User: Fold this.
Amino acid sequence: MRGADREAEHMNEGHLTFLASPDWARMLETDVLPWVDTAGDLGDDVLEIGPGPGLTTDLLRQRVPRLTAVEVDESLAIPLRERLAGTNVDVVLGDATESALEGDRFSAATCFTMLHHMPTPEHQDRLFAEVRRVLRPGGIFVGTDSLDIDMIRDGHVDDVFVPVDPNTLERRMRSAGFAETTIDVRDWQFRFVARKG
Ligand SMILES: C[S@@+](CC[C@H](N)C(=O)[O-])C[C@H]1O[C@@H](n2cnc3c(N)ncnc32)[C@H](O)[C@@H]1O
Assistant:
């Protein structure tokens, strides 16, 4: 798996501070993760893509027996690996679009507010195909991401912002080989659940 030296995918300081803040931890706990819980059982061996500072990882790892978190930014992956050493989380430094992870392994894959941090829609499509490869048949891919609205755009000055249009996602997931996709839009974000057939 390739190392993480791509400046283009680093977040601006304000964004990074927010993603490590008690405010974001609270929103994840009261809003985002309960929404993800309604997608169904994640099973016994779960993948998280783009954990960043790891507030999502902290909540996810309470819900599943085993979690593998793949983070492309070395300055985030290494401290997270150190912080979660000896727990049920394995932090992998690398690009999730070309992971060397075993095919058909994971019972579920997740990603939270990371798709819009990928440099192009082609990278996002490559990620969808790679996630499908590493999921078991019947495994689910659950994620949330931000809508393309001013409030979110304003938070991404000098940052990567390639929003996913939820209206195109079902088609894109189908092209990546997913059998069923459901998409729900709420406030400033959307949630998707796609199943590998
Ligand atoms: C906005 S942060 C979200 C962090 C966390 N999921 C949360 O919601 O608090 C997006 C993260 O995705 C990571 N990322 C972007 N592209 C990636 C890729 N191709 N593979 C793995 N991680 C990636 C970024 O480095 C960043 O840490």
Helices lie at 13-19, 22-37, 55-60, 74-83, 121-134, 150-154, 166-175. The chain has seven helices and seven strands.
